[in-house]
């Protein structure tokens, strides 16, 4: 869409078009600027370049520097504080996770059609295992979203969703092992593909504002809730170690009591402001990029190992190098490359953060 939008501006030179595309990409990837602000900034840049009659890089400088300047001037702290490391709010994270799940299911159906034919055979055991996989993956995705939202503890926090996922896995495995494996029905694979497509469309169509409200706590009734929220945001959204996050919470309590003359009369929110903005300010610094890269490295390593195990299991069961094995090997290789990239990012100099 960025390419289409910048092309509509009718840049006079090809190099100016490339400059605008680079600005668009850098604003989206490095600074998480909303699309409307990106289009507004590019429209203003286009007008300045046209009036000057010079190349864009001579009028406005390097595209990376211009993108950084636009982000610093136009993206508020409140907007940046509400988003995670991927630039998503909790609602957008849920939509992306469930939409991706539907797309992956659609691709798997296509591969099944190619490898095993038009008809899929269902049994009680296969239905139970399929439902278990969907439930575990969905609950795992919700756990990651809850962590990014700063909800670590509680039934509807990260650990709560992980506990539900463990229960679903144990229950599904028990049901699958106890039920007969005889054939119940045959279903055309295109029907399953249509179901996956409907799942993905429904996920992306769901209003993210509603999901944001589900993952955002109500206004804090007291300082304990504000402090607990601060710790959750530092640990979850900003990948800060638990001990360091608790240290910041202790400092906040000490400062608040000192400012209140030891009486504790002022509320933490009155002293330090919005908890999401304050957490972002505390987390910003040279080590934040490395913390986030390390977290991504662990996730990528786990996924690479999972796909490697699936590839070995499928190869042993099929007795040959099938299409499924090739897909698992390819997925494992992609995640291994991500592990290497994040390892390099995590080992980079602490002061090399992008603006």
In one word, what is the shape? Answer: globular
Helical stretch tally: 17
The separation of the N and C termini measures: 25 Å
Strand content: under 5%
Give average pLDDT, whole number: 84
Counting structural domains, the number is 4
The helix content is over 70%
Tell me about the largest β-sheet. Answer: 2 strands, antiparallel
The strands making up the biggest β-sheet line up spatially as 1-2
Indicate the low-confidence ranges by residue numbers: 1-7, 350-355
Radius of gyration: 25 Å
Class per helix and strand makeup: mainly alpha
Tally of DSSP β-strands? 2
Please trace the helix and strand order, writing H or E for each element. HHHHHHHEHHEHHHHHHHH
List keywords for this structure.
355 residues; 4 domains; 2 strands; globular; mainly alpha; two-stranded antiparallel sheet; disordered N terminus; 74% helix
